[in-house]
Design brief:
Elements: H1 2-10, H2 13-27, H3 29-35, E1 37-38, H4 39-43, H5 49-52, H6 60-80, H7 82-103, E2 109-110, H8 114-130, H9 136-156, H10 173-196
Antiparallel strand pairs: 1-2
Length: 197
């Protein structure tokens, strides 16, 4: 009985749940329209769309790349800290939504988990660096590659991996930057708290 409970509690339930909800949303277009960031709806009071937008995806390529990365990195962070995963994802979604509202007035719709993934990867990289993990160099390389990817996408104004073949849809690199900034902020708060105790 104890092993079963331990296996269930260590399973990446949050990560798998996010992936399944994203697949459901993509498979059911009405659900995507209900969950995605819609400027008029958010301004009309449907602010929950800021949190649900990462569950929506604009193409099969967008869905597959995002969910593959979320599954790998989300499950890794969830094994270390479920609360860290929730905080990084929740705060990144909120910050990205606010940035969409305030800085991208031309943007009517937004969706995708890449901002969350950027935050998760940055948080993991920083955690592994401080913990002097055996794979520390690997995680620093991943963190460095993430930053290079974001710089490339900002300069090129085009996603590096995802193909979104829709008129009027473009990469929102500010969500990737938001994820990294949120992760760094949470990490340094966590460091400060630990050094004070």
């Amino acid at each position: 009985m104890g092993r079963t409970h331990q296996a269930i509690s260590s399973a990446p339930i949050l990560t798998v749940g996010f992936v399944l909800l994203s697949i459901l949303s993509f498979s059911w277009p009405g659900l995507t329209e209900f969950l995605r960031f819609d400027r008029q709806a958010v301004q009309g009071g449907e602010v929950w769309r800021i949190l649900s937008a990462p569950l929506t995806h604009l193409s099969l390529s967008h869905l597959c790349w995002n969910l593959a990365a979320f599954l790998v990195f989300g499950a890794t962070l969830e094994k270390i800290t479920k609360s860290g995963l929730i905080l990084v994802c929740g705060l990144t979604a909120v910050v990205s939504g606010i940035v969409c509202l305030c800085c991208h007035s031309e943007l009517m719709y937004y969706g995708g988990a890449s901002g969350l993934i950027s935050g998760i990867v940055a948080y993991l990289g920083l955690l592994k660096w401080v913990e002097k993990d055996a794979n520390r160099i690997f995680w620093l390389a991943i963190l460095f590659l993430l930053i290079l990817k974001i710089i490339f996408e900002v300069v090129a104004r085009d996603p590096l991996f995802v193909i979104i073949d829709m008129n009027g849809v473009r990469l929102l690199s500010s969500s990737h930057v938001s994820g990294v900034v949120v992760a760094a902020g949470l990490f340094f708060l966590w460091q400060r708290k630990n050094s004070a105790t």
